[in-house]
Structure formats: C-alpha cells, structure tokens
C-alpha cells in the first residue's frame, strides 16, 4: 500500500488552491474539521496512485471553489442580503427518479438552477450566450469530456452535461461536511462524523452560493435537487424554512442495489482491488434507511409542505407527476413550459438498457437483510 501523505498535505493543498483562485480568504473556519478529518483518513484506505491523484485534484477543486465563492460574496454584498424565497427542492433515495424530474422541471423558465459548470466556479451567472469562451465553462467542458472518456456510464446515469442543471451535491462539499466523500470511497471514521454532525453551516454556505450565482437574476425561483437532502432535511429547512419539498420514492429492493452499482466504478477507481463491495453495500443500505427515517420524522412536523412522488408513477406518466407537483404547491405551469417539457421527454426517452436490475447478492448483500431494514418504509409507501 502506497503512502500518499494526505495527512501532511493540509497546508500544501490549501496553498495550491490559493494559487489557482488568486484569493487567500477561505471564509469561516467551519470547513476545517471535515477537511482535516478527511485528509487524516485517506492515507490508510489503499488509494491507488491514480485514485490519490484524482482525490487531490477533487479536494483542491473544492478548496478553489470555496475561495472563489468567498471572494464573490464580498463583491456581491447586495446579493448576499437577499432572501431565497420558497425554493423547490427535489430529494429522495438515489436512483428514484430525482435526476430525470430535475431535468424535466428545469425546462420551465420560471425556475433557475445550478448549471454543472458553475458548481466548480461560483460566480454571478453570465448570460447563456456568453458561456462559450468563458474560461471556467471551457475548463469544466474539458473535465467532463475527460470523465466521459473514462466512465461514460456515470455521465449517462446522471444525465450530466456542462450546461444543464446539476445537483447541489457538487457545491455543498465546499464545506467538507458532505456525503460526496464517503459515497465514493470507504472512510468510516469520516462517515461516522458526517452522519453525527449538524450540517446547517454547510447549507448556509450553500445558500450564499445561490445568492452569488443568482445575483443577476434574483427574482426567479430556485429549483434544486440533492438526494442527500433526504438525510439532512431538517438542516435544509433550517436554512430554507419555506422550501417546497418533493421527495421521490422507489422500492429499496431495487434502489439500493442500483445505488451500489452506480458507486462501484468510483470505489474501484480510487482503490482498485481493495474495493470491498460488500462493505459498500452495507454502508449504502444503512445510509439511505437512516435518510428516509429522518425525512419522515421531519415531514411529520410540516404537514402540506412536502409531496411524495412514486417512482413507478413517474416512469409511467411524467407529465401527470408534473401537474401533481404544480397543483400541490399552487404553481403555474404555462403552456410554453409544458411544451418545453414534452419536447425534452421526446428528446430524452427512457432507455430500457439502463433499467438492468441488480440484487443485493450481486454486491455481497442479503435480500432478507434489506427487506428487514426497510420494512416500515416499504409498508408506508406501498412497496411491501
């Protein structure tokens, strides 16, 4: 096992981020505990040379993004004072249709979202016509193309494109209290800390990033999506108290094995032959069981503020689900927006090749254990 010396790289990685960003103010120190814990654990998990290099780059990217964000906060003080009113937030267990629903609703121009490229370079969103030629846009395009060459299934499964809406998960790690890290490689000590930590501070920083990105368009409603918000729903509401919550649901017997399949490539990339997929399965099984339990407890305190969407219904009739959401929150769906949504559905048909089903046993898990752990959830949402 190679020692990649992350434990002694705290200052070095920060210095590299300062060099790239051209700024040296990281803002509040609340990111430091997660950052220090993450780096302190990475040397002992068997990272490959390629995995260690990619992890360093990812960490520096988040540090650089944080520096750019803090600089932007200072430059956009008026924007920082604006409230974020009634954002529409899509959440739910991974592989339950959140991405497709997010992309579909983003066709409505009454909403604004976080485009993929701007998650890595937070700034007031320029006019779309000015994106080509923007060095941040071009850099993000090149990175996405490189990822597509190595892992095309990740791009396909997430529907990732440089100029379309991206999930909040790619911006939240600026605070280094994020499910991003333990979902892509096994770091149990960090994972335990993350699950036990009140990450309201991370969502506050995230909200400031929304204010920065939307500084040129402050009046449009935010459309956000992040499956991990299911786990942190109370913290989401601490920061966005009037949020409209859409939670998608899919039978965990289908969703959890599919989650592990989605994550398998990342784990194998980072640690190669050291990837223990049975441990990954156990982690994801417990993570999402905790997430849906926590979300149910929070929703019980906010009747009418959240709507539950069945994955099967969404697959069968996407537009009926759209109308259900708009009716629930008293939103107006214009004829132009509905046409744009139907055009998007026609251009992005669901492909049966992506519906391959995996079982817990494919990943060293147990169907019986999964049934037992999710018994209450499956009964509540009609999967049992």
Explain how this protein is built.
The protein has 384 residues and is mostly helical. The protein has a single domain (7-380), classed as Rossmann fold. Helix content is 55%, strand content 6%. It has 19 helices and 5 strands. It has helices at 10-21, 32-42, 49-75, 77-80, 98-105, 116-119, 135-150, 152-158, 180-184, 188-196, 200-213, 233-239, 252-271, 277-299, 311-316, 318-328, 335-347, 367-373, 375-380, and strands at 88-92, 111-112, 221-225, 244-249, 306-310. Strands 2-3-1-4-5 form a 5-stranded parallel β-sheet. It starts with 9 loop residues before the first helix and ends with a helix.
Poorly predicted spans: none
Q: What is the number of strand segments?
A: 5
How many structurally independent domains? 1
Give the helices and strands as they follow along the chain: HHHHEHEHHHHHHEHEHHEHHHHH
Structural class: mainly alpha
Q: Span between N and C termini?
A: 44 Å
Largest sheet: 5 strands, parallel
Shape: globular
Q: What do we call the CATH topology?
A: Rossmann fold
CATH architecture: 3-Layer(aba) Sandwich
| Rg computed from alpha carbons, rounded to a whole number of angstroms | 20 Å
Give the % helix: 40-55%
Q: What average pLDDT do the residues reach? A: 94
Widest sheet: strand order?
2-3-1-4-5
Number of helical segments with 4 or more residues: 19
Highest-level CATH class: Alpha Beta
């Amino acid at each position: 096992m190679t020692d990649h010396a992350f434990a002694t790289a705290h200052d070095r990685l920060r210095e590299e981020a300062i060099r790239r960003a051209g700024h040296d103010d990281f803002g509040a120190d609340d990111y430091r505990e997660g950052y220090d814990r993450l780096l302190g654990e990475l040397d002992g998990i068997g990272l490959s040379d390629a995995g260690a290099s990619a992890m360093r780059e990812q960490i520096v990217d988040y540090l650089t993004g944080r520096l750019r964000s803090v600089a932007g906060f200072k430059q956009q003080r008026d924007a920082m004072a604006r409230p974020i009113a009634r954002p529409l937030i899509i959440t739910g267990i991974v592989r339950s249709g959140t991405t497709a629903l997010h992309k579909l609703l983003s066709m409505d121009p009454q909403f604004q979202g976080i485009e993929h490229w701007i998650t890595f370079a937070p700034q007031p969103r320029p006019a779309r016509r000015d994106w080509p030629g923007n060095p941040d846009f071009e850099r993000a395009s090149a990175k996405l193309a490189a990822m597509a060459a190595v892992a095309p299934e990740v791009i396909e499964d997430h529907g990732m494109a440089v100029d379309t809406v991206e999930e909040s998960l790619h911006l939240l790690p600026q605070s280094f209290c994020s499910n991003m890290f333990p979902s892509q490689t096994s770091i149990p000590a960090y994972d335990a800390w993350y699950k036990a930590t009140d990450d309201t501070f991370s969502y506050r920083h995230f909200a400031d990033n929304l204010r920065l990105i939307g500084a040129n368009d402050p009046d449009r409603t935010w459309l956000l999506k992040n499956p991990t918000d299911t786990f942190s729903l109370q913290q989401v509401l601490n920061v966005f108290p009037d949020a409209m919550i859409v939670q998608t649901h899919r039978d965990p017997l289908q969703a959890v094995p599919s989650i592990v399949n989605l994550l398998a490539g990342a784990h194998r990339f980072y640690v190669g032959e050291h990837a223990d997929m049975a441990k990954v399965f156990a982690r994801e099984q417990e993570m999402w069981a905790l997430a849906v339990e926590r979300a149910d407890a929070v929703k019980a305190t906010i009747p009418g503020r959240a709507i539950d969407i069945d994955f099967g219904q969404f697959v069968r009739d996407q537009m009926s689900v759209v109308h259900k959401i708009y009716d629930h929150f008293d939103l107006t769906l214009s004829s132009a927006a509905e046409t744009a949504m139907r055009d998007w559905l026609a251009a992005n048909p669901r492909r049966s090749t992506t519906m391959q089903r995996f079982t817990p046993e494919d990943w060293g898990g147990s169907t019986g254990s999964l049934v037992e752990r999710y018994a209450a959830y499956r009964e509540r949402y009609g999967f049992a």
